[in-house]
Design a protein that fits this description.
This protein is α/β, with parallel strands linked by helices. 35% of the residues lie in helices and 19% in strands. The protein has a single domain, classed as Rossmann fold, CATH 3.40.50. α2 packs across α3 and α4 packs antiparallel against α7.
């Protein structure tokens, strides 16, 4: 039985923010997908998380059905303002926040502001690029070219050129929704990966945090993994050696295993009929 409840818009931080809601029980959990991932592309994860949590998967501004225009500010800071305002608009007394990639950078910035109600934070393979650091390993042309081709009506076979290991289901959904990602929003976010200093803000995060890093993604390397742990001594870090950057796409069971019981009720991979995998705590 699906845990999906509905999609809805809310006016917060001066814009229309769209979300998909799953589960409806337990602690509210706000999920922020990556740089070119509308909310619907993380629905398969939210379906499972909805078994234990009240899940709200966001269309980050400039993506999916949330507001987009050339006049909007698409920097990480503006997106973090959206998250804080969304939680306030929804009147969550307490909530948890999970972000993947670009969404993890947004989540970290939002958490560094210590918003009332935030209880737990999960950062899934956040880009560690920034001033004076190595560049993000994916080229901006990868994103821009794929958006433009999908906007012209390309489908699953063209999408496969960009994500050759993905299932047909994931490829078809990405091909259908990628055109909703504003090119300006994506280019601005990519630039902010290199101009925004995430590391300077990490010590300001005071809520319990779990970092989930991909062993095959080259987004976080072992020495960088260790640096983040030094900046956040109370951080719980988990390395997933079997997965690339899109961790739940590559190894869904490993993603749930890495999340474990950090947020509360554990989503057990064995109960889902998923293959057994390894997530290494560090």
């Amino acid at each position: 039985m699906s845990t999906f409840l509905y999609g809805q818009n809310v006016h917060a931080n001066g814009i229309r923010q769209h979300f998909l809601r799953f589960g409806g029980r337990g602690m509210p959990l706000i999920v922020l997908p990556g740089i070119t991932s509308p909310a619907v592309t993380w629905a398969f994860v939210a379906e499972r998380l909805g078994e234990a949590f009240d899940v709200y998967v966001m269309d980050v501004r400039g993506r999916g059905l949330s507001e987009a225009s050339d006049a909007l500010d698409y920097r990480i800071s503006a997106c973090a303002d959206d998250v804080v305002a969304f939680a306030e608009a929804m009147a969550f007394p307490t909530y948890a926040l999970m972000g993947h990639s670009f969404g993890a950078r947004v989540a970290a910035k939002a958490a560094s502001r210590r918003p009332p109600g935030l209880q737990r934070l999960v950062l899934v393979d956040p880009p560690i690029s920034g001033p004076g650091r190595r560049p993000y390993p994916a080229n901006i042309d990868f994103y821009v070219d794929s958006i433009r081709r999908m906007a012209r009506g390309a489908g699953i076979e063209v999408m496969r050129e960009y994500m050759p290991t993905w299932s047909d289901e994931h490829l078809r959904l990405r091909a259908e929704w990628l055109h909703t990602c504003s090119e300006k929003a994506v280019v601005t976010a990519y630039r902010d990966f290199h101009e925004d200093d995430m590391h300077a803000e990490l010590p300001s995060i005071t809520v319990p945090t779990r970092l989930i890093a991909a062993g095959k993604g080259d987004v976080i390397r072992p020495d960088e993994f260790e640096e983040i742990k030094v900046l956040m001594p109370l951080l719980e870090a988990v390395w997933v050696p079997t997965a690339g950057h899109m961790i739940p796409y590559d190894d869904e069971a490993a993603f749930y295993r890495a999340l474990g019981g950090f947020l509360g009720p554990e989503i057990a991979p064995a109960a889902l009929g998923l293959r057994s995998t390894t997530a290494v705590a560090a």
